[in-house]
Design brief:
Distance between the termini: 63 Å
Shape: extended
Number of strands: 3
Strand content: 5-15%
């Protein structure tokens, strides 16, 4: 993961810290020193999720069924609730819609799409990911605007408080 983070432009120390955090989040801290090739299929899937956490992606495309029937849904819950990441757009794919019915999943989980693998052609995938990237841009822009407004209100209030204090002292 550190090598992957370095390839993505992070300096060594931040890369190591983020890699440790990502491994901890997916429950692989104890296996951090093992070769990825020695990981089980489920562990390799969690390692892929750790890579996604590491690089703060705009879109996650997840299978509902991974090492168990609701593993993808657990990932959604972890991203939204444990990591508090509401920015990333999440699209679930399933080859077994009966395990996680679309109406239930859309109602219970904060996801941006639910796609059956049998209907996910290259054209459909392009459309779904493009829509998710646009939604990500809107969410990011709104967050930046909110932060700017919060900072500006503080910057405006601070001089105002100073003026009011000075006026009170003068009286």
């Amino acid at each position: 993961l550190v090598h992957y983070a370095r390839l993505r432009g992070l300096e060594r120390c931040p890369a190591e810290a983020r890699a440790r955090h990502a491994l901890r989040e997916v429950g692989l801290s104890a296996s951090a020193d093992r070769r990825a090739g020695d990981y089980s299929k489920g562990m390799r899937q969690r390692l892929g999720f750790a890579q996604a956490i590491l690089c703060e992606p705009a879109v996650l495309l997840l299978d509902v069924v991974m090492e168990h029937e609701r593993a993808g849904l657990n990932v959604v819950r972890a991203v939204r609730e444990e990591l508090g990441n509401t920015q990333v757009r999440i699209i679930l794919r399933t080859g077994q819609p009966g395990h996680a019915p679309e109406y239930e999943v859309m109602a219970r989980y904060a996801i941006d799409g639910y796609e059956a693998k049998t209907e996910l052609t290259a054209r459909r995938l392009t459309t779904v990911v493009t829509a998710a990237l646009r939604a990500y841009d809107r969410v990011s822009a709104n967050r930046a605007k909110s932060q700017f407004l919060a900072n500006m209100s503080h910057e405006l209030l601070t001089p105002m408080h100073a003026i009011l204090s000075f006026v009170q002292m003068a009286q």
